[in-house]
Amino acid sequence: MEITDDKLLRIALVTSLIGIIGLIIFTPTIEVKKIDIEDINRGMIDEEVKIDGVIQDISQSSSKSSYFLTVNDGTGQIPLIIFESQAVEIQSNSFDIDDFKGRKVEVVGKITEYNSQLELILTSGDNLKLTK
Predict the structure, then answer these.
(1) pLDDT of the residue at 36
(2) How far apart, in Å, are the Cα atoms of 79 and each of 8, 47, 59, 63, 120?
(3) How far apart are CA 37 and CA 41, in angstroms?
């Protein structure tokens, strides 16, 4: 059997389509890994993680557009940054960010570093959820 350019092109096209269909099918089932705050380190910068914890403190930026929350899960604490677009999204769902203080939450965010301190950036307003 001789492999011609035409056959090779067809094989590549079929393989690509199978890969794309696989991505479409399996992407919704991929979950963000859940982690304890004490296990977060600088090697995880730019990774998206899920943590459970209690909101201990809430403050606003001087421009009143961003919020800084402190999340504690019993193993440690980390600042959670909520920028204006995510804050608007949360408030459009009939929640006031100040209502989260003292409440247990589940957070999905991206680990970043600012002024040599690790912090979590909320990636979407839907990624801050109250838990029981």
Answers:
(1) 94
(2) 53, 16, 11, 18, 6
(3) 9
Q: In this structure, how many other beta carbons lie within 10 angstroms of the beta carbon of residue 119?
A: 17
**pTM to 2 decimal places:** 0.74
| Residues 61, 45: Cα–Cα separation, whole Å | 23
- DSSP state letter for 83: -
Can you tell me which residue has the tokens 């963000």?
A: 32
pLDDT at res. 109 = 94
Q: Tell whether 26 and 41 lie within a shared domain.
A: no
Residue type, 14: V
CA distances (Å), 10 to each of 3, 14, 132, in order?
11, 6, 53
Query: Does one domain contain both 8 and 54?
Result: no
At residue 63 the predicted structure's pLDDT band, cuts being 50, 70 and 90, is confident
Residue-range definition of the domain harbouring residue 57: 37-130
pLDDT tens, position by position, 37-56: 999 999 999 999 999 999 99
Query: Which residue, among 31, 46, 127, has the nearest Cα to 83 in the 3D structure?
Result: 127
